[in-house]
Amino acid sequence: MVIGLAVNLSISLLLAGFLLRAVRRYERRANAVLESMDCFRDAEFLRYDSARSNFRIAPSKEVSIDSESKGLRPSEPNTNPMMGYDMYELLSKIQSPADLHKLSEEQLGRLTQEIRDELVQVMTARPAPFASNLGVVELCLALHLTYDFSRDRIIWDTGHQIYPHKLITGRFANFRSIRTKGGLMGFPNPAESPYDLFVTGHAGASVSTISGLKAGDDLLGESDRHAVAVIGDGALPSGMVFEAFNNISGMNQNCLVVLNDNKMGICPRTGGLAQRLDHYRLSGIYQSGKKTLNDLLKSIPLIGEPARASLEGMRDAMKMYFKEGMLFEEFGFRYFGPVDGHDLKGLRKILKELKGQKGPLLLHIFTNKGHGVEQAAEDPVTYHSPGIFECVGENNLNISLKKGGAKAYTDAMSGAIYRSLQADPKSCVITAAMCQGNKLEKVRSDFPKQFFDSGICESHAVAFAAGMAKAGAKPIVDIYSTFLQRSFDQIFQEVCLQNLPVVFCVDRAGIVGPDGPTHHGCFDIPYLRLFPNMTSLAPADEADIEPMLQWAQKQPGPVSIRYPRANLETIPRSKPHQPIEMGQAEVLVEGKDGVFLAFGTTATSCLTAAKNLREDGINVGVISARFVKPLDTKTILKAIEHLPLVVTVEEGTLQGGFGSAVLEAANAAGLDTRHIVRCGYPDKFIEHGDRNELLADLGLDAAGLAETVKNFRAEPAEELAAAGVR
Ligand SMILES: Cc1ncc(C[n+]2csc(CCOP(=O)(O)OP(=O)(O)O)c2C)c(N)n1
C-alpha cells in the first residue's frame, strides 16, 4: 500500500510539473485568445497596472481640469453656470430610448459627452450623487440599445446612478428640476416613467426584484421579456443579493446581472469579496480561455484512481486561480468578463451575445467612478455626492467645490464617538459602508482597531455588534435611521432579547431632504420603542449629544440615540444643562397656557414658536422629553393633568411614535387626552425637497407649531369646556 501511495505521489508530482508548464503556456496565450473572440474583438480590456496598483481610463478630453483652480470646466467656455439646453444637439432629440438607434457610433460617442456635460451642469447647482452617474453612461446606452425596456425589465440597484437613464427616457427637458420639491426624484420613480419599475434607494434589492419580475412574467406567459439587474460592487455583498443568486440558480431563471465594478462603494469597498474581485483584475484571464483550460485539463491522461483524485484536487486549485467568476459559477451563474464598461461598442457586442443566452448570467464590467471628469475620477469619495459648487477663476469660468459650511449633528456625534474610543480601548464603532456619511474618517484613521465597516450589510452589522457586546466590548452602531430598518430582526433577537449593551447612533432621523422617501428617517421611533429592554433617547441640541452618548455607554442594555440631518443648534438655557438621567425630561421653559412636549431637536422650533406666541399673549412652555422610552411620566402626566393644552412634537411618523407613547401613558393613568395634540409625520410617504420646506409643509416649523396652538385655542369654547380643557 505504501509503495502504491508513493507511486501515485510521484505520478502526481510529474503531472503537476506538466500541468504547470501547460498552464504557463496557456497564460501566455490567454490574451491572444481574448482578442480573437468575436464579442471581445473591439473591446478595450482593462489591464491591471501593477505600478499604480489600480486601473485607470484616461478621462475624456472635453471636460478638463483647470490646473490653477482645480475646478471642473464644461467642454465649452460658459459664463452662465446653467448651460442652455440648446447646447445639446443630440441629447435634446432623445425622446425615448428608441431614438438612440437613429444615431451613428460617432454620434453615440458625442452623446455620452453631452450626458456628462449635463450631469456637470446640474451638479453645479445642487448636491446630488455624481461620480456613480458619470461612471455608468456607456453602460446605460449599451443596455438601452440592446434591450427594449418598454417591455424588458431593468432594475438599477440602489438607484442613485439612474440619471443617464432618466436623461434618455423622456425626462431631459425636466431634468434640472431633479431633487427639488415637485421636480424629478433623484431615484427611480414609476410615477415619472414606465422605464422605472420600483422606487428604490436602499442597496442590494435589485437581484431579488428582477428575479421576481421574471418569475411573474413567466407565470403570466410573457417569457419573452428579458430581465436585467445592474448592481455595484459596493451593493454586491448585501446578504440579500446572495439569497437571490441562490434562488435564481435554483430556478435556472433567464436573468442577467451586470456587476458594475468600480472598486468603490461610497468609500473604498471593504471585505473578502472585495479582495476576490481585485483578484479578478489581477489575473487577466477571461471567459474565452476557460474552455481551453478545461479541454487541456481533460486531455491529460489519468493513471489509476488515486492519481485521478490528486489531479482533480490540483485541477480545482488551478481553476480557483484561473477561473474568473468561480464564486458566481458556484452559485450557478455563467460568468462573463471582466470587460471595459466604458467601451460602448464592446459592451454592445457582448450584451447582444448574452441576450441570446439562457439561464442565470453574470456580466462583470469594470468602470471608473467619476469617469470623464478628472476631479471626480481622482476623488470619487468626495464626488460621490458632493456639496455645492461655486464659480471660480477668471470670469467665473470654472467651477470648484465649495468648502466649509455649518457643522451638523453628525459632526457632533462623530466627535463624541472619537473621544469615547480615545478614552476607552473597549469602545468601538461599526458603520455599514457609511464612513463618510457618518463622518467617521478621522475615527477610522486614528483608531483602526476600534473601527469596523461591515459594508452595506446592516443586519450583519447589528448582529456583529451584539457579538462584540457579549464578548465585553462596548460597540456603537452608527447607521442612518432608514438603513437601520434592514436590521429590525437583529435588533430584536441578537440585541434586545439578550439585553446586550449595544448603543445605536441613529443618524439622519427625520426628514433628510432631497433624497426623498427612501431616505427620510420616519420610522425608527416606533420600531425601536417596540422592543423590551430598549432605551430610546433624542438630543434637543448640541449640548445633549456627548452627555447622551457617555450615559448610553454606561447602561447595561441597548440604548438608541436619534438625531437629524440638520445643522447644530444650542438652546440658550436659563438654568445649567441638566445631566442625563434614566427617563428624565428637561423642562426648558414653563408656561400656563399649554406646553410643547418636544422629542429631539424639534425643541428648538418649539422654543421659537413659544417665544412668538408670547408676543401674542399666549404663554406656552417647552419640555425636552429626552426619552421616548422610558417616558418621564411624572413630568409629562403632571403637564397633561394641569395644563389646558399639550402639544407633542416629533420628527417621525405619528403611528406608534412619541405622541402615541404620551397618549398611552395618559390613558394608562386614566387622564383625559382630548387636549393632547400630536404633531409629526402623517401616515403617508413624504416626497423629496428641501428639508426646511418639507418641515414647514408638515407644520413642524416654528410658524406651523404656533399655528397649531392658535387653532386649538380657536376651537369653540363650549367644546373645549366639554372636554374639561377650559
Ligand atoms: C441599505 C443601504 N445602505 C446604505 C446605502 C447608502 N449608499 C448609497 S450608494 C452606496 C454605495 C453603493 O456602492 P456601489 O453599489 O458599488 O455603487 P457605485 O456608487 O460605486 O456605483 C451606499 C453605501 C444605501 N443606499 N442602502
In short:
The chain folds into three domains: 37-42 and 65-286 and 324-391, Rossmann fold; 409-562, Rossmann fold; 586-722, Rossmann fold. Helix content is 40%, strand content 14%.
Distance N to C terminus = 102 Å
List of distinct ligands in this structure: thiamine diphosphate
Strand order of the largest sheet: 11-10-12-13-15-14-19
Number of helices: 26
- Compute the number of strand runs: 21
- Measured on Cα atoms, how large is the radius of gyration? 29 Å
The biggest beta sheet, please? 7 strands, mixed
The CATH superfamily label of the largest domain reads: Thiamin diphosphate (ThDP)-binding fold, Pyr/PP domains
CATH architecture of the largest domain: 3-Layer(aba) Sandwich
* Average pLDDT for all residues: 85
Structural class from helices and strands? alpha/beta
Approximately what portion of the residues adopt beta-strand conformation?
Answer: 5-15%
Could you say how many structural domains there are in total?
3
> What is the helix content?
40-55%
According to CATH, what is the topology of the largest domain? Rossmann fold
Q: What form results from the Cα inertia axes?
A: globular
The CATH C-level class name of the largest domain: Alpha Beta
User: pLDDT below 50 for ≥5 consecutive residues: which ranges?
Assistant: 22-82, 284-297, 315-322
